[in-house]
Each structure stands twice: as C-alpha cells, then as structure tokens.
Amino acid sequence: MTETSNQHDTRGLTIDRVFTTEGVHPYDEVTWELRDVVQTNWKTGEAVFEQRDVEFPGFWSMNATTIVTSKYFRGAVGTPQRETSLKQLIDRVAKKYRSTGEAEGYFATSEDAEIFEHELTWMLLHQVFSFNSPVWFNVGTESAQQVSACFILSVDDSMDSILNWYKEEGFIFKGGSGAGLNLSRIRSSKELLSSGGTASGPVSFMRGADASAGTIKSGGATRRAAKMVVLDVDHPDIEEFVETKAREEDKIRALRDAGFDMDLGGRDIASVQYQNANNSVRVTDEFMKAVEDGHEFGLRARMNNEVIEKVDARELFNKIAKAAWECADPGLQYDDTINDWHTNPETGRITASNPCSEYMSLDNSSCNLASLNLLKFLREDDTFDVHNFVKAVEIIITAMDISITFADFPTEAIAQTTRDYRQLGIGYANLGALLMATGHGYDSEGGRALAGAITSLMTGVAYRRSAELAGIVGTYNGYARNASAHQRVMRKHQAANDSLRTLSDFDTPIQQAATGEWDAVVRLGAEQGFRNAQASLLAPTGTIGFMMDCDTTGIEPDFSLVKFKKLVGGGSMQIVNQTIPRALANLGYTDETAEAIVEYIAEHGHVIDAPGLRTEHYEVFDCAMGARAIKPMGHVRMMAAVQPFLSGAISKTVNLPESATVEDIADVYLQGWKLGLKALAVYRDNCKVGQPLSDGKKKEAKKEADEPKVIIDHKPRRKRLPKTRPSSTTSFTVGGAEGYLTSGSYPDDGLGEVFLKLGKQGSTLAGVMDAFSIAISIALQYGVPLKTYVEKFTNMKFEPAGMTDDPDIRMAQSIIDYIFRRLALDYLTFEDRAELGIHTAAERRRYVETGSYIDESDNDREEVEGATAPAGKIQLSPGAVEDEPESEEPTTDEPTQRTASDAHTTAELLESLQGNTVDAPLCLTCGTKMRPSGSCYVCEGCGSTSGCS
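User: That's the sequence. What structure does it adopt?
Assistant: Structure tokens below.
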C-alpha cells in the first residue's frame, strides 16, 4: 500500500517561544524535592513497589509521583540504570523528538529545534499535557520505540488469516497494548465450506482468541488483555454473537450459586468464556430505519452477499438491548456515520475500532495519542487562554507526527499503514473540572456549547498544523487518492463549527478562534494537502490523567465531589474537590457562604440542601456517581455536542441505574444514532456478577453460607390503623400551587396513612393524588419503611416547583419532593434524616453558627459534628505531610468530621459517605477499588487500567 509522497518545501517550522523564557531552562524555574515512593497492597500488606529519593517538582502531587515512578521510570530498581528523576524521564522523550525532528527537516533552524524542545519540556513538566503511556514506556530507551496504544487488526475467511489473528493479538497484548477487529468477513455457521461441510462461524473462533488473551497478560502484568470484537448487524450469526456474553453471565450466576469463586480474578472465573473482550455490533442506517419502522432486515451470506435470512429488525434490536441490560455487552458502532466522516474511503472502509472505541480507522493501523489538561488553560480571571491553547496544540501535533517517523510497530502491515496515513489522536482531560470551575452544568446547554467550542478549536488547530507540516515535510502517502474525500470531511467539520451556537462571553472567543482555524484548514488543505489522515479523538486518559493531576478523565464529568488524596511522607486524606470553591465564586457566593457549602459537601458528599446554595445551581455540581448522578441522556448529549469536531470517536460508557429497563437501554442506543454518535456503550449498575466483593462482604457471605438455613414462608400482613388515630394536616404552597397534606399515625408512633388534597374535586389531578395516597398508605401498612419512600421521591423534579411557604423547606423541585421532605421531618429520626441530608431550618442555622446540627445541651441525641478542618480538608492520617504549600497544615488534635481510615480510594470514600455501591472491580495490583474512566477502569492507587491506554 506504499505510495509516493508529494514533493515538499524544506523551509521548516519557525517555533514561537510561548511558555519558556530565553536563556532559562524550564527545570530551573521550579523547586525540586526528593520523595520516597512506597506502594503496598492494602489487603495483603505485601510491598508492591518501592523506590526512595526520587526527584519531582514540589507542586506535583504524591499520587502523580507514585504513578510516574512505578509505571514510567525505566531500568531495574536498585541499579544505576534506574531512572530517579522526572528530569530524566522528560529528557529522554523530549530530546528524542527534537533530534528526530531536526534530522527529518521539521525545523527551520537549530534554534527553532531548541525552542521546540524547551516548550515541549515545559508543558510536560507543568502537566499541561501528556503523551499516551507507550511513549513513556519506550521512547529514548533501548527497547522498540513503540508509541501507539491503539491498534486495529484484520482477519479474512481463511484458517491462515485466523491463526495469524491469534498471533498478532498475542504480540500486541505482550507489549501492553490493545487491539480491535471486525470478524464479519468470516463466513457464518449457516454457510457451507468448499469441502461441503458447514462453517464454524466467527463466534467459535472467538473462543480461541479469548483463551489466548486470558493467558497472555498485558505487558506481563496481572490485568487482562484489552480487545474489541465487532460483528456487522447483517451477519447471519449476529444473534449468537449478541447473546454470547449474556449466556456466559447466566453461567457465572449458576456457578457462583453452586459455591464456585466467580469474582473477577477468582480461581474459577477462567472457566467462563468471552470475558476478555468488549463486543460491539456494527449497525447501519438501513437497519436503524428498519427498527424505527418495524420492518424486516436481511442477513447476508459472507461469500456472495445474498440475503439468506430475514429477521424482524425491531426484535433483533431489542435482543441487543436485552443482552446489554444483562451484561453490558454488546455496544453499538454506527457504521454509516463513521464512514461518512472517513477521510480515506478510496483506500478502504472503517470496519472496527480499538478496545475503547475512540480510535476508528483503516484495518491494520495504529494511533498514538496525547491529551491536554484543559484546566491549565483557565486563567486566574476565569477566562480561557485561547492563545496558549492554540500554541500548545501546535507543539503537540508536531511532536506526535515526528514520533511516527521513528516509531516501531508490532507487525509490518500495521507499520506500513500507519506510515502511509500517519493517524494522530490528540484529545483532552479535565473537561468536567473545567465546566464545574466555570459554573457550567455538565448536562446543560451552556456546558455542551463550551465543550463543543473547545473541541472544535483543538481539532481545527491540529488540522491546520497538519496542513502546514504537509507544506514542509510532505502529505501523508495516501493523501493523493483521497484528497477530495479528505477535503470534504474538513468542510463538514467547518460547517459543524459554523452551526455551533455559543451562550456566553466565556465560550464565544473560543468559537470565534475555531472559526478562523477552520477557514485556514480548508484554505491551506486545498493548497498543500495534509500530513495526517486523522488528528483527534477523546481517549479515557486513565493513567496519564493521574500523571497530570487531573480531577476528571477524558470527556467524563467529575466522579464525585469528595476525593481521596495520598500525601507526601505517607498517609492520606479526604478532600473536597478543589474546583468547588472556584465554581461557587463564579456563581456569586460570598466566602462565608461558600465555606459553609464546602463543609456541607465534606460531610455528605453532595450538595442537596447545602446551606445557602440555590437549587438552580445544583446542576453545576452533578457528578457521575452519588445523590445527584447525571442522567444517562446527559452523557449522550455531551458526546453528541463534541462528536462533529473529532476525527475519531469517544471512549465513554453511559452508566444507567440498576432500575433501568431494557427499553431504557434501547432508547439510549436509538438516540445515540439519531444524535450522530459513532459508538456507544452502556453499563447498568450491578448487571455483572463477576465483580470482586470486599472482604467484609465475603466474610458475611461465608458466615451466611455456614449457618443452617430455615425456610419460612413469609406472607406480608397488613397492620391496619385503629379507628381513632392521631393525625395532622399541613397546608402548603409549592411554586404557587396550593395543597393539603394529612398524615395519620399509629398510637405507638409511626406513619400509617397519607392523604393529599390537590386541585378541584373531580379533576384529573385530584383523582391521581387520591390514588397515589391510597397506594402509599397501603404500602406503609404492609411495612414498607417511610425512609425508602423518602429516598425514592425526594429530588423528583417537575412543575410546579420553586419557593414554598414552609420555613423548613424553602425550595422544592416538585410537590412530591416537598411532601416527602415534610414527612421525613415529621416522622423520621434525626439520624435517618441526616443520612438523607434533610434538616430543619433551626438545625441548619445551628450548624452554620456552631458547626453542629444538634444543641450540645441535648443529651438525648448523639452529636453529629460538621467539618471543622480547613475548607477542603477532612481527615489526615498521622505522620502525613501535605504537599500543597498554600494549604494550612491541620494537626492531629484537630476535630475531624469523619475518618477515612477504611477507605483507600475515592470510589470507596464515596461508598462510605453516601452508602452507594460503586460498580467497579478491585485493582489486581494494589487491591483498591478502581473507578470508571471512559470505557475502562483506572486505579487511583497505582495507575493500573483495565483498558489499552
């Protein structure tokens, strides 16, 4: 597939000095310190890693220090060859990029080359961006110079090709990367072989590949290999493929119930098949329209493309949704959308993706990635630094393109395609933190407009620099045959930018800059062509996100409002997300009110009923997990806002609650297609059995298993109220709507009935409320706890909503929200209400004045203290030294709100604060609970990931 590159100019790039100062090396501008990095598995106490006296800047967190030292420093620990300083790590990468760029004619002068090295060094040192992990593993070492984390393979309908697939995947997994491929060329089990027998079908060959992936651990580590398997929706074996992992999940449940160890990493889980891959169905517009219309859809033979079977499209689509509901697989990839944005259709179609679904390109290709830390471009005056953002993208794209020149690849076919098409994947992290800090809700029009503008600017600058590089070192080899298609896609990006509507003074300058960049892209591309077939995507940024000290990864919102932080010198502490005070200031809150809100968040982990916080600002602090988790379509809409400005796709899983239905998942998949996404994956909480239990849960389960079981047939019994019972009636107003709440209780206390009077007698509303009251009352008499209803119905949002006339509940999101808050205040214990964040006006006032919700003179109640540590700090382990010099040092005598001794990561901390289970595996390296990152999971303790990045 080698083609001749266009002739090019040899003028070279002139590099501006933006971040650095002439005559001063970036290392000389910061204060360095020596630290000890010690990692242990908290479950076993076993030392996982130890290296002392490593050199890092004082402003780097201990988490970033630990992850970089253990993951990226090269050389055997304890030998002179072992790297001991961040300077050594950055130098071996930056100097390699400079020397190759000079040798290949990228720079106009040696002075430009030096400025390029210094600018690159400064940005890496100050955590402005990071390359993907393989760059840190390999560049500048004596090992193969592999720079790509993402690979796409191909397999044909022959035994040689299938066996070669196994071999190529094995080498990629051994190198610590992941791969994806489409199996749709393999004939189905409903077709004949040339010998006359029946073909095995692609699902049977998946077994061998799955066993291989489970055996060859990535990079010699303990985590499983990362892989993606795709099958076209018109393949005759599509139903078997769809249901494959769901059937295995049934097997896991049966084996677990029989006493086998089916936890992730358990000794018996290896008996289950197909667990080492993400599965995706490649759907077409034709299929999705047939789903909408309820029509039949043809499944086609692989050898002659004839329709050999017709199925009900809607029924097949529902089977896909049902399987995803049961086990989170398969995801969807939208084929026509993907190929409509394809810059190289004359070379071949895009048929597959990498394991996390963000890289989509030609078969037998690879992509090297880099991600910007968006929060680094938020100035102190809370404006976005467009100029520096543009300059950063220019430097990064130049470096990424240089790396293809010297890079090594796992197969010759991948090497050839990558060198011919030079696919790049610039992206970003900390979008969620940036939105929160600037007062934008993640699921809001303003948040989506800002995200779209930044993404448009990033990709526009990337392609403009690609066109400039084409004029200096030549276009990519495959450009000539694809020039018309490539330019067409650039105009599509430009049109999407033109239709982007900004909503504030914050994002308008970003979009205006993007408009200028796309104008330059179209003009320069027509004149000079492009150096790179692809430029941008959004990766999960798991490990490198920690390296950059990012609060949020990839396109994700913040995981939670409280964080678990490791400290220099040992120990750990619980902190409140540091972007919250900045967000409150942007929203106009005084320092005193902001401090009270931060303290409330520290105690509860959410903002519901935070003193002084207006309900219309709640959305700014919505997170991926917790009491105000972002709704599934909020995630989908954010993806849709940025997708038109990306060459590739987005690594992201849309999380749904355990209560979500098959229809909910089907709707998410349908809306993803309508909104123009390229790929979509879902995860319903607790849908998978093979998740590790905590030690406590295992012991409890064992205890229950050891105890003799007595089977008793319980039938619910209704406890009716006596003829005469105490009751009270409360009149209320919510958003101007008036009503009456009458509640009756048992003589021995406890709510037993509720009557609601809303609207005129005989009206629809009055009838619905009567029925609702009867249903609630009967359920209460059958023993359903009031607390359960309060948990379910508070924060339900619909009109009428707004101000109330109740001094204890000043704002309500709906009448139902108000009613159950009032019932909670009247009938629940203080402890139960405190768990739900529901307090009287007097309690909230006392908390602001004294730091306690309870009058200290009241000896009948156990005092629940507020956070009295400095804002953002909750608990400090003994002997710890804080690594943020601007923060006041707490002492061990200082009163603390809550101990974090039982938590080891943010995921565990969130569980302890809010009682919600975070559905994520335990890290097989250090034993802590991981947290979601894009389509993968990442460990805060050691930086391990479950994906390819």
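Residues 1-8, 218-223, 691-713, 858-901 have pLDDT under 50 and may be disordered.
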